[in-house]
Structure prediction request, 688 residues.
Amino acid sequence: MSLQKRNKDERVLSIRDLNISFETSSGMVKAIRGVRMDLYRGETIAIVGESGSGKSVTVKTIMGIMASNGRIDSGTINYTFTNENGERETVDLTKMTQKEIRYRFNGKHIAMVFQDPMTSLDPTMTIGRQIMEPILLHENVSKEEAQARALKLLEEVGIENPEKRFKQYPHQLSGGMRQRVVIAIALSCNPDMLICDEPTTALDVTIQAKILELIQKLQKEHNIAVIYITHDLGVVAKVADYVDVMYAGRIIEKGDVNEIFYDPRHPYTWGLLASMPDTDTDSKRLFAIPGTPPNLLERIEGDAFAPRNPYALAIDYKAEPPMYNVGGKHRVASWLCDPRAPKVNPPEQLMERMKKMRTESAKYDND
Amino acid sequence: MTTIDYNAEPLLHVEGLKQHFKISRTYTTKAVDGISFDIYQGETYGLVGESGSGKSTTGRAIIRLYDPTDGKIIFDGHDISGKLSKEDEAYLRQNMQMIFQDPMACLNPRKKVKEIIAQGLQIHHLYSSQEELDEKVNRILDKVGLSREHATRYPQQFSGGQRQRIGIARALVMNPKLVIADEAISALDVSIQAQVVNLMKDLQDELGTTYLFIAHDLSMVKYISDRIGVMHLGHIVETGTTEEIFSNPIHPYTRSLLSAIPHPNPIVEKSRVSLEYNKEKEGVDYTKGTVHNLTKTHYVLATDEEFEKWSKIAAEHPDVF
Prediction:
């Protein structure tokens, strides 16, 4: 695996202590609480979490498409890009207005692939025109050149017969095809960062695998940084270099993909991994995390996960755990990692599965 | 765990079911094109396939939301294909229930939970007094893990997982023989999916309900189903016990479907490439295929040559994962 040492000059994104809240009719919702994240060129980060955990809000802030009732309370989002003069330039996105972010970066430097390709494409425009649109908008090129590039992009994303498809409308394409078109649009201006918000949730498994493989291939060719938002841990295992697990607006565990999958430390991550049905195990009952995610309207006392956590300690209800460094790039926000905490083991089902996963992966390591 | 008697008369017998939709004068979509299967009392039959394979149409045709074009559906001794007699329709509507995909869309936002759950009982007059009705609603709420206070709230006051529980309660309060779960968990979060699936299994153990479980998530289907049917473009291309489908898949579509499941194991997953299946490229015509039995329960739709070829490939490469 290619987890080389990260080079500082290659850093694309650096988020520090980000806090975001939303004003709603029933009060303030603290959606993001102290998020910290780094992203380098050519890397893939996956943000995992349930709905309402704040994973979408984080990336929408980067894109400047946060809902209008949202407010950045504190923190910085430093984004580094190569400007028109070919120099590396760093800007703080939190200091810019949303309009400015959209005008300067969206499409050109930061592109996004949304969940549902049917709603993110314009039904009244041919797909050819939709791919040409960002090229004509951001770059000073002729219509003919834009068309040639659009055709090349269609070919690149694996659409057969691009000349014919060029003139068709979104409704004439299947779901997988549409998502390929969306990816072509996202890549049309050679962005250095691609955000994929559940890119395959609306697609079938067979097509899902193909789309993921396509994004991986294009990422390698263009050396782009990719952020995936997903709740499917199988997808994460396939594409991610690094994983951030979010719960109630906070990153509760982060590390490289092997650390998270082979040595998870946070009880919530245990729950997520254990509740995935495994095609190999024949256990009678699935492990389920009890309860529901907390209501962020209410003030959270202590660890947000404590009420659902069978391993909760007394301190979990009183104080929020700090980020513990458990070696390597692995960071965990759980009191269980404190040296004074009692030693606990993950649920039995998960232990068994991890043992099996290690033996399985050992086979591949030898190849 | 209830044992399933496969020698008994099946609870649901579907034979040559066709459901065509006329789009225009010259074009007809053959969503379901001649499928046959049986579901036995107390089992869970999983129907999987990609979108457009006709799995949801099958479910809807069986519960008679559509009028099937052709074919025979026998449900618990009642012929429910063709024009329904009054008695058969009443029997069908009471004893077959459906759980829908989107718990946000399938509950009436202007009705309280207890009204939603009680509606079926009221329509079919399955109670003798108001107390009995309340009692029935409360009992089913307990069973699906909701509290009695929830009965007087509205659907929008619940989370997705809780709403799906209301949907399940609404189906099960009728004490049905067969429940059709059409993508009942795909709209839910992973941690909640596990809760709902466990609940469905527990209720099956307790009440002996039979499920037709329609889904595209094969790993969940494996976990819940006793037998699985794989659908592609309106045909069941392979069916067998869960064990048979997962350990000895023959049809290339089944194999591509199985190979596409992402595994939560990064090192393995990163070096794996999914199998491809293209019906046109392989020149497969489902209407030409006949049913080939491997075992009493496991069969594949194929022509003789195809069957031979595929069995050989399957024998040479047993590992699709």
Observations:
- Chain A has a mean pLDDT of 88.
- The two ends of chain A are 12 Å apart (CA to CA).
- Residues 302 and 317 of chain A are 5 Å apart (CA to CA).
- The longest strand of chain A covers residues 11-24.
